[in-house]
């Protein structure tokens, strides 16, 4: 016989532990250099409660002047009347323009409110989009290490009980091997290099 009392489900415990180990290693890998993005975008407010990036989310501009020029080529706009600024769902926008001939939909009592455009400055630092980066706080990593430890201990207990209940080991052998494996694991755990895991395997 070779175990089977738990239908070998103890190996699922190890799979979870291995996944946690992999995630810890990913979080400890050197981080790539951040990408700095500094750009302007146009936001169109076509109803009193919503807006979207105009003309679409992937069109941005290196300067305010280029964003404004782009908008003026496509729409008849003028500087927004301050009384309409409150209808923009994002308060505090610095640059607001209003349409001369296009009005918002879904307004109260069919009130005519011009469509609003804001030219918004965005500064965005981020890792390269194709980088596999996992950021975790130190306290989280310590918790995950303890989770790994507890799962590995649970796996050892489950495996030894499985073999004893399946008739492979005696009760005395259970106690003897259990202590040996727990001691060996604790030594391994205390000297473990958490960043050394090859996450490409």
Task: Describe the fold and architecture.
This protein is of the alpha+beta class and 201 residues long. 39% of the residues lie in helices and 21% in strands. The protein contains four helices and five strands. It has a five-stranded antiparallel sheet. β1 (35-47) and β2 form a beta hairpin. The longest helix has 28 residues, at 138-165.
**Structural class, from secondary structure content?**
alpha+beta
Largest sheet: 5 strands, antiparallel
Global Rg: 30 Å
Q: Name the beta content range.
A: 15-25%
Order of helices and strands: HEEHEEEHH
The average pLDDT is 91
Number of strands: 5
Q: How do the strands line up in the largest sheet?
A: 2-1-5-4-3
- End-to-end separation: 32 Å
Give the overall silhouette: elongated
Number of helices: 4
- Detail the poorly predicted runs: none
Helical fraction equals 25-40%
In short:
The chain is an alpha+beta fold and 201 residues long. The chain is built from four helices and five strands.
Layout: helices, strands, pairs:
Layout: H1 10-28, E1 35-47, E2 50-54, H2 64-74, E3 77-79, E4 96-103, E5 114-126, H3 138-165, H4 171-190
Helix pairs in contact: 1-3, 3-4
């Amino acid at each position: 016989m070779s175990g089977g009392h738990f239908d070998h489900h103890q190996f699922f415990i190890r799979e979870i532990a291995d996944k946690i180990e992999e995630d810890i290693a990913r979080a400890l890998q050197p981080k790539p250099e951040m990408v700095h993005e500094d750009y302007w975008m146009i936001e169109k407010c076509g109803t009193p409660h919503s807006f979207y990036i105009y003309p679409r989310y992937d069109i941005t501009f290196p300067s305010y002047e280029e964003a404004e020029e782009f908008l003026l080529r496509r729409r008849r706009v003028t500087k927004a009347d301050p009384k309409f600024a409150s209808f923009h769902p994002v308060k505090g926008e610095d640059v607001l323009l209003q349409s001369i001939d296009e009005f918002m939909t879904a307004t109260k009592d069919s009130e005519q409110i011009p469509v609003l455009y804001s030219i918004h400055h965005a500064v965005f630092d981020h890792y390269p989009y194709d980088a596999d980066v996992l950021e975790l706080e130190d306290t989280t990593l310590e918790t995950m290490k303890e989770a790994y430890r507890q799962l590995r201990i649970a796996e050892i207990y489950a495996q030894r009980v499985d073999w004893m209940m399946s008739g492979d080991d005696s009760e005395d052998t259970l106690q003897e091997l259990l202590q040996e494996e727990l001691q060996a694991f604790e030594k391994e755990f205390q000297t473990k290099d958490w960043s050394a895991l090859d996450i490409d395997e």
